[in-house]
Amino acid sequence: MLTRAAAAAAALALALPTLLPPAPPARADQVRDAVTPVLDSLNVPRAWSLSRGRGVTVAVLDSGVDDTQADLAGSVTVGPDYTAGANPPGTEPKRLHGTNMASIIAGHGHGPGAADGMIGVAPEARLLSLRVILERDEPGFAAFGGDRRYEGTIAQGIRYAVDHGADVINLSLGRSYPTRDERQAVAYAIGRGVVVVAAAGNGGAERSARRGGHAEFTYPASFPGVISVAAVDAAGRHAGFSNRNSAVVVSAPGVQIIGAGPGSRYWIGDGTSPATAFVSGVAALIRSRHPKMAPALVAQALVAGPQQRPARGYDLGVGFGRVDALSALTESDRIAGFRADGMGLAGDRRFGADDEGPIRVVHHPSGPILAYVVTGALALVGLVGSLMYAARNRD
Asked: Per the structure, how many domains does the chain have?
């Protein structure tokens, strides 16, 4: 049996998609042709009349981003590599997964009129790349998972992102158990007005998930205040691999999604990772239009008008439905003036002080009622500190 530390690398792979190179290799104009219908399905082009992400920074905590990739050049700031030393000396980071996610969030295309290549949801947003994980085929992957020095990389990355101006944090990754450091880092982010978006995980097709009707909760996605994202196919149906649990808030496309890779190559993959990137892009559009909007209100905007809302309003597999960028922006305009003077507790009190006892996470049996209580409560996550942020910073 793997120890907790030795299992870390495998656990972190929960949200990572399988990325396969197109055959034959895609040309830039083919890429634009492929990504446009996906953006159309989320009403992104119509939302661009209201916001394109200008002035917003999205932190991509991942395997690293290639800042020379033509569709990202000029938009990426490269921050610390928290995995340094895990790979053998002289090994170049692969940066495939992180580059792929970054291009979905904020790719700006290239060529005449930027008409070729990858266009993301928020093409005018800036990106902060923080390398917090290794990819499975990097030579140091096993060492990374077995070395306690690297257990806190995600928490370190979250705190760095907050302290260096991130408005949105994208976490297309996850593990099957919570850690104190990550929980407190999430509280730190939300309490300071940063929107945290994370992948629900890709364990939905496992035997235990099929037998129990839901997958294990994945972290950081299942921490209070985090926007947990599931994956759907092109028709808006729940993707079989996507986790089903009451932490899921919204869903986005995650099947056969194209994105940029290092250099000039483009890759196609499945997973809750790209779905998360799409939602982070929509969150960036909202924060560009309403820079001081509290994370809880961004979540409220996202759940207010999704496409194909489930028959009962909420479903463990797709949350409140597939996100709609235009509806989210419209709702953000409606609630932008919300104030919450005197409501809620500070984030450190809600999540617990640093000197409290061992972390305890209790999950009750899943069901529609609990789903509404847990996920719908994101509209009032001011109890986690973010509505206090809104009270201090009226847009």
From this structure: 1
pTM attached to this predicted model = 0.84
Q: How many CB atoms lie within 10 A of CB 64?
A: 27
The per-residue pLDDT for range 9-42, each reduced to its tens digit, is 334 444 555 454 444 456 668 999 999 999 999 9
Q: How far apart are CA 393 and CA 34, in angstroms?
A: 40
Output the six-digit token pair for 9: 């690398």
62 is catalytic: yes
In sequence order, what are the beta bridge partners of 134? none
Quick check: is 273 catalytic? Answer: yes
In a domain, 3, yes or no: no
97, 108, 110, 214: the catalytic one is 97
Confirm whether 336 is domain-assigned: yes
pLDDT in tens, 332-361: 999 998 764 444 555 455 554 444 433 333
Residues in the chain: 395
CATH number at residue 67: 3.40.50.200
Q: Of the listed 172, 228, 242, 273, which one is catalytic?
A: 273
Range of the domain at 297: 8-392
